[in-house]
Amino acid sequence: MELDYIENVNEFGENVVRLYNFDKYQAIKFRELIKDQLVTRKQKLDLSEVDFIEKRNCNLILGLFETDEGIISDDNKTFYCALTLDSYKIMLELLEPFCKKETKGYKYLYEIDNPTDFLFSPAGTW
Description:
The chain is α/β, with parallel strands linked by helices.
């Protein structure tokens, strides 16, 4: 599984933080990390500390917030995913199809009006 940041992916100047190049077993491990760290323990999840995720040009830290802000950054190197507990529970549901079988599909892991989307894509495409 690889993590990267792509700037200006469309004519609206939107950006993507992308997790890609993975199989269903890594999708299962990622889903379990979110469930364990964020939903159960209510602690942040720093993807730079996850052994099966290779950082390409950025890092992403997932954390619990009072409101859904989406992915934010001051420097386009370290990103913070600021979501509520309910939104992380929805994210677990969005990850479920990737954990059942291999697929070339993709999902955006939240629906927030924010300039940076969170893309989960085994093939890296959208």
